[in-house]
Structures are given as C-alpha cells and as structure tokens.
Amino acid sequence: MVTDEQVRLLRQKRMKGKSQEAAAAAAGMSVRTAREWGRGALPSQTRKKRGWRTRNDPFDSVWASVVEPLLRRDDDRVLQATTILDLLERQTPGQFGEGQLRTLQRRIRDWRALHGPDREVFFEQVHPPGREAQIDFTHATELGVTIAGVLFPHLFFEFVLSFSGWRWVGLAFGETYEALMDGIQGALWALGGSPEVIRSDNLSAATHELKRSGGRALTERFASLLAYYGLRSTRIHPGRSHENGVAEQAHHRLKLALRQALVIRGSRDFASVADYEEFVQEIVFRLNRRCAAKLEEERAHLRSLPAKRLPAYTSYRVKVHKWSTIRLSSKTYSVPSRLRGHEVEARQYANEVEIYYRSQLVERMPRLRGGEDYRIDYRHVIWSLVRKPGAFARYRFREEMFPTTTFREAYDALIRFKGERADIEYVRTLHLAASTMESAVEVALRSLLDTGDRFDYAAVRGLAAPVKPTIPMLTTPAVPDLGVYDALLVEAVR
User: Fold this and answer.
1) pLDDT above 90 coverage of the chain, percent
2) What class does CATH assign to 132-299?
3) Deepest of 60, 389, 394, 448, by most Cβ within 10 A of its Cβ?
C-alpha cells in the first residue's frame, strides 16, 4: 500500500527534475505506480471510510434495553465496563465473557463521547513571573524509606514558583505552624526574594474555621508572617486540590524522581536522617536545573526580603507542675526537677522544644509527633524516685522509665528473681545509669541477661560502675631548695 509520504517524496523528486525512474526508486515504488500517483489526491484522501462492521456486535441484543439505560443514569461517569459486563453475565449466563470486555469498553467510550454528560473542563493558566508561589505538605512515608532499618514516617513541605517551577523542599513530621513557617522562610531566603502571592489549600496550620459563616480565615500568627514578607494569601476551595495544581504536580514529579533514584541507589535504607535529607536535596537540585533559565527571568520580578528572618518558633509561658512536667500543645514533657514550681519559657520549633529559665537554656528535646502524647526523661525524676521506689509500681509514666528494650528485659527478669523487690532493684539500676553512663549499664545488663543467671543491683553495679582511680600522694618540702636552680644557671652560663 502506497503511503502519503511516498507520494510526496515522488512529487518532490519530479519537481527537482529527476526522471520518472529515479523518482520512483527514491520513493520506493515501481515506475508504473509512480505514473499513477504523479498528480492528483494523496492516497489517504482517496480511501473510503468504512461505515460497516466486519463482525456482528455481541451487545446488540442488550444495548438498548440494558446498557444504554444504565449509562443515561450515570451522570457522574462512575460505571465501568467491567461492572456492566459482570451484570450481563449474571443476567444471561453463557452469552458473554471476559474476551468481550474490550469491545464493551470501546462502545461505552464512543457512546459517552456522542451522548454522555458534559465533562468538567480545566482551564490552562498563565502565570506571570514573580507573582505566585504555591505551598503544600505531602505524605512521603509511601516511598518506603527506612532509617537504620526502621520505617521512616515523614512528610515533605514544598514551595513552588508557578512561573518557573523552581522548588524548595523541606522534611517535616507534621502539618504544624512551625513546620509551615520554617518551610516558607527557608524557601524565601534560599530564593533570595519574595513573590507577591502565596497560594495554598486550607491548611489548619494557617487557617481556622469561622463558625458563623462556615468559611475559613487566616490565623493571626500566619497573617503576621505574610505581612512581614509583604505576601498576599489565596486559598483553594475545600475539596478541590486541582486548584493548587502547581503544587500537586510538583509533589507527583518529586516522588516519581525519588522513586527512580531509590531504585538506582539499590536500597531504601539510610544510616541517618541527615543522609536521607542530603539524598533528597540532590534530587531537588537536579529538578531545579531544568528551570534555571526561567528562574533567572523570574528573579528580576521578585521583591526584596526584610533584613532578617522571623524566629522560627512559637513561645509559651508555662508553669512546671509538681510532677516535674509541663503541658505544651496538648503534649506532656518532663523537665529538670529543680524547675518545679517555676514559670519557664518553652520555645516550640518544627522538630524541637527548648526550655528557658530567665533567658537561660536549660533543656532541649525532640518535639512529640502524631499520636505521641508524652515524653518523660528518667534523668529528670530518678533522683526523687530512688528515694521513693514504692511509687514506681503505679507511676503514670512508668513505661517511659525503660530507655531501651534491654532495660525492659532486665526489669522483667528482676520480677522473676526478686518478686516485690524488683521495683527497688530496678530503680537503683536506673539511678546508676543516670549517675554514670547509660551505655555502660546497658552493656552490663545485656551481659547478665545473656548468662541467664540471677542478678540484682549489686551485680550490675559491679560490672558497670567505674573503678575509682588511685590518686598518688605527693609530698613537697616546706621550703624549696633554690640551690638546685642556682646550679642549673651556672651550668647554663658555662
């Protein structure tokens, strides 16, 4: 069959003065065929379109009575050909089968194109340079990344310029205000300028629900952050993520790039969170190289930044309870017992909490995430607990008194060996860990557990407590003999 491309080539060669034989050879056809197609319509223009079927339609008998009424009721276009075929198989056993699925899919496709309900239309947007950035969080645990063999639950915060596509990506562990603030400021200062508008969905970290109107408004502190950088906020309608399409597409492309890079790397396990962050930023750098030219164009339209960043934390004034704990954002943290009864300043960052007393930093700890409700450091309370070991049995936060699984195993063994005295023996062991080195005590416990023999606090102390060094006794004469020094000077002069 002669194609349009062959005929066009034939005619071009003839127009350039080639002979019929040479032009036919160049076009890959015989001389006789070349004479036939030397002028006139192209082959595709002469073929008659087929308007008949080459085989009987297996669905003719049920289309008008069963299938079409279902499609007319399906305004949301949710019915699939597999569902309809299953219905037909149940209604008329033996007449239809899986081999007819593609035929039914094509018929449904064509019917919907000709008679189906109107579909939603999306409108391509024109983004002026320097006008808009879109922000959003996305869950990334689905990547299956592990840290030292343990699954790593996390999110990404993405800041994407709508015109150039330049992005900034930060690791996050919750959609908190501090993570949002840290992400926006990190992106702006990495970019070196500010757009006019920040577009987002209705993040609870940035907005709150209006009870009377049913709408959402910016929280006071997020509005203050935007005002500091001269930004305006626009938000999508609830449930319409496509209105934040730049960020959604950026999420898709980032995860796709990361998945491919993980396959090439050959492992999803990383030694530390820092190693994983370095890996992610390398992928982000590669993605940003593709939009370098458009970014340079956009930089000319960005606005200048203020002189410095805002503090990336939220400050609270809280009082330390008699339990040596504080409550912060509905979470419980222990603090050094010497602060009991005092008011302290708690600075809550995206991933950390700092405790200050009279502007002096006294404690820094990881911020609790998700379903974690409390964090009790045994070192904060063990000094009182060792004097009141009876309180251990029903201590509300007793499970926090096992720093590692080895300590938990040791306590279970002490219950078998010591019965009711297990609490006293374990509390003393924990006090030893706080007084010396937790790692040394853990090694001692592991060694005793592996032997399977009975042990107590004294046995642990014998293995873990450091040996006191022997301090030599030095004696010096009451009056030093300066003659030795004089003799040294004489020797030096000679």
Assistant:
1) 71
2) alpha beta
3) 448
